[in-house]
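COMPLEX REQUEST
Ligand: zinc ion
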Amino acid sequence: MGSDIDGVLAHNTDNMGSDQSVALVTDPLQIMRIRDNCNPDNTFGMVRNAGTKAHQGWDLEARLNTPVYAIADGTIEFVEEHDGGDYGKQICLKFVYGGNLTYYAFYAHLSQIYVSTGQEVHQGNEIGLTGNTGNASNLPAGQEHLHFEIRTIPHPGLGLGGRVSPMVLVGPHALSCPAYDHGGDLGQKQDAAF
Ligand SMILES: [Zn+2]
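STATUS: Structure written out below.
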């Protein structure tokens, strides 16, 4: 009783107290849609090579130079300005979720980075632009994307360790190809994220 359902999504406070007043994350992109028509290969988990190869985050469709946003108030843990390796240009944002849990939002294959290590940012700030750096450099048009991870440590290794599915914090809405996809499949790919 007395729950303020209408207000839950608007809440973005650092208040202690009830479950409904903890900080919530927002989306890293204005349009949230898994790359390649919600192909499960581009979700989180052991989703590649017939279940034998990990994908550590979500690939979110984004044309080159699409703004990316801080999903929470936090501090820039590191940036990588060098276009190299698998991830290319990167931003790692440290933030606190649920009052006391530290996570890191990780953005890869960027073209532009507007923040620097140690900088404080606010939820919704534009922190960079999507690109095709790192191993995304040879993807065909239409496959360009933001590689987005939720990490529990800032520098995890290969595989899934040190990461959780973005669905846990961001929610499942990117997995259902809504609004912008007229091909249907609403909701049917959600299981693939785990
Ligand atoms: Zn990826």
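REMARKS: The chain has one domain: 5-193. Residues 166-170 form the longest helix (5 residues).
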